[in-house]
Specification:
Layout: H1 2-17, E1 28-29, H2 39-42, H3 54-58, H4 63-69, H5 79-92, E2 98-100, H6 109-117, E3 122-124, E4 128-129, H7 130-135, H8 137-143, E5 153-158, H9 162-172, E6 178-183, H10 188-193, H11 203-216, E7 221-226, H12 231-244, E8 246-252, H13 268-277, E9 282-285, H14 291-301, E10 305-308, H15 310-314, E11 322-323, E12 335-341, H16 342-355, H17 360-377, H18 379-386, E13 390-391, H19 393-405, E14 411-415
Parallel strand pairs: 2-3, 2-10, 3-5, 4-5, 5-6, 6-7, 7-8, 8-9, 9-10
Antiparallel strand pairs: 1-13, 11-14, 12-14
Helix pairs in contact: 6-16, 9-11, 11-12, 12-13, 16-17, 16-19, 17-18
The structure holds flavin mononucleotide.
EC number: 1.3.1.88
Region (Disordered): 37-67
Protein name: tRNA-dihydrouridine(16/17) synthase [NAD(P)(+)]
């Protein structure tokens, strides 16, 4: 049932995407987008931009679980049952630990599949705008694509109206494992639109949104939050979300004002305090740059899993144990060439884009992130790339060949003790 629904969605999506803005084997005309200058504008900068078969998503294989899971929306379950149900669902998904964070224009289907191939256990979609999603079919088809291998999948929305979000969520619930509410976007566009981290100023509205979703959807609701400057406020916030029906909480350990991830270290001890204060599964986000960070974070915070964003863009093989040169400094004697580099990953990604078309602006963004260091050594190749108003896969594969001919040697490394986890499925 699920696979039929998925392939139906995917085929429908492909059909309507072929005629506009999407990367396909055909040449597409697009203005070149330059490398992101201002992350503040990039993040969440997307304003213009069938009900689940109950048994397929919510019935656990364990017969003890099924009493909890059958039935459906969580609304009328007691608090205790909701917590048990949250854990049963998490367990049914295989308790994913290594998760691709939501990233506007960057955690789209081919990138998610690439990360899954290299060790990611689950992934979030980019944030989708709930109102536009309900109103605009083209937006839906362009911005949300998925396929059978793309699970577990968390579909993220921004919203400030419970009814609108419910309508948007109902459209995606057959194709995902959580509907996620973005409560973390700190950017100007979110302030203007009154969503993301700006809902931290209106907690009764947040509560109403989560309650509405949790009591009407078949699929569980998750939330991604930022921390408050005051720890007790953060704890109260997390408990409120849990009481409202949130089944999974991802905590980005930075405040709304700490926008620059490179400048501000994520506060793992605040994440640990949240983990101790609630009973639903919790995920940590912030400062996950290689597998040592993953292990330290899991140990320090006690959370179920971690999300990574910025580092994954440069190194989608992070969760398989690979690291860029930046993260082996001082440990060179314990590391070796992993026989994989960012150009290999780009080629993998491009092949996935040929199979699952996405807007060219997303491909451009990934090229800059993956080959940023290579372009520093050979800026003329970057200039040539930026000068292309029409991108083609042929040009992109050719560009990789040119870099190879220039003998750029920039491998990803692995620690001697680490066995890379690469899946052949994705
Ligand atoms: C390009 C980009 C786009 C992002 N878009 C979203 C988004 O759509 N939704 C969201 O909740 N967070 C978004 N974020 C924030 C990340 O999910 C994550 O919370 C943040 O980058 C901290 O994780 P990191 O330290 O691993 O980068 C985005 C981050 C980046 C770099």
């Amino acid at each position: 049932m699920r696979s039929l629904s998925n392939s139906h969605l995917y085929l429908k999506t492909i059909f309507s995407l072929r005629n506009s803005f999407m990367a396909s084997s055909f040449t597409q005309t697009l203005k070149p987008d330059l490398p992101p200058q201002d992350l503040d504008d990039l993040l969440c900068s997307h304003p213009q931009k069938q009900r689940q078969d109950e048994s397929s998503s919510l019935t656990g294989s364990n017969s003890n679980d099924s009493k909890l899971l059958l039935g459906s929306p969580t609304g009328y379950l007691s608090g205790e049952s909701r917590i048990e149900r949250a854990w049963a669902h998490w367990t049914k998904l295989g308790r994913p630990k290594l998760i691709v964070a939501p990233m506007v224009d960057n955690s789209e289907l081919p990138f998610r599949l690439l990360c899954r191939k290299y060790g990611a256990d689950a992934a979030y979609t980019p944030m989708l705008h709930s109102r536009i999603f309900t109103e605009n079919e083209k937006y839906r088809n362009m911005e949300f694509t998925t396929c059978q291998e793309d699970r577990p999948l968390f579909v993220q929305f921004c919203a400030n109206d419970p009814d609108v979000l419910l309508e948007a969520a109902r459209r995606v619930e057959p194709y995902c494992d959580y509907v996620d509410l973005n409560l973390g976007c700190p950017q100007r566009i979110a302030r203007r639109g009154n969503y993301g981290a700006f809902l931290m100023d209106n907690l009764p509205l947040v509560k109403a949104i989560v309650e509405k979703l949790a009591s009407n959807l078949q699929v569980p609701v998750s939330c991604k939050i930022r921390i408050f400057p005051n720890l007790q406020d953060t704890i109260n916030y997390a408990r409120m979300l849990e009481d409202a029906g949130c089944s999974l909480l991802a905590v980005h350990g930075r405040t709304r004002d700490e926008k620059d991830g490179k400048k501000f270290r994520a506060n793992w001890s605040a994440i640990s305090a949240v983990k101790n204060a609630v009973r639903i599964p919790v995920l940590a986000n912030g400062n996950i740059r290689h597998m040592e960070d993953v292990n330290n974070c899991l140990q320090e915070t006690g959370v179920e899993g971690v999300l990574s964003a910025e580092t994954l863009l440069e190194n989608p093989a992070l969760f398989a144990g690979f690291r860029t040169a930046e993260w082996i400094e001082g440990q060179e004697e314990n590391t070796r060439d992993g026989n994989l580099d960012q150009a290999d990953l780009l080629v993998d990604y491009l092949k996935l884009c040929e199979k699952y078309p996405v807007p060219w602006r997303m491909i451009r963004s990934h090229v800059h992130k993956l080959l940023g260091d290579w372009f520093k050594i050979h800026p003329h190749i970057r200039e040539d790339f930026n000068a292309q108003s029409k991108l083609t896969f042929e040009f992109l594969y050719n560009m990789v060949e040119r870099l190879r001919e220039l003998q750029v040697k920039m491998p990803l490394y692995i620690k001697d003790s680490h066995v890379p986890a690469i899946s052949s499925n994705a």
